[in-house]
Amino acid sequence: MSMTQVYQWCSWFKDGRTSLQDEPRSGRPNTANKDWNTARVHELIKVDRRVELKEISLKLDIPKTNVYEIVHDKLGYRKVSARWVPKMLSDEHKR
Question: Model confidence over 54-73: pLDDT tens digits?
Fold first, then answer.
């Protein structure tokens, strides 16, 4: 941490600030990771398991990083042989 940042924090705490957390910021809220976008991404993958993240991003007009987060973290898919498959495979799926 730079000395400038330390001096700035000291100044804030002398002025009465008591929290280490960032204060709320104005601006556009993150809407790309909403449940309805997750459902839309899931539908696109069900229709074509070979669809790429870039294609999904372009079709739904949401950032590619958010599409990645939805596909990997929320839906639990991973790419196997150029297809999106659920991470937890049953014995039948493994065959």
Answer: 999 999 998 898 899 899 88
- Amino acid occupying residue 69: E
Q: Amino acid letter at 20? A: L
Strand partners, 79: 84
Q: How far apart are CA 22 and CA 93, in angstroms?
A: 46
Helix (H, G, I), strand (E, B) or coil at 26: coil
* CA–CA dist 60, 57 (Å, integer): 5
Q: What pLDDT does 31 receive?
A: 64
Give the C-alpha separation, 41 to 57, whole Å: 9
| pTM, two decimal places | 0.57
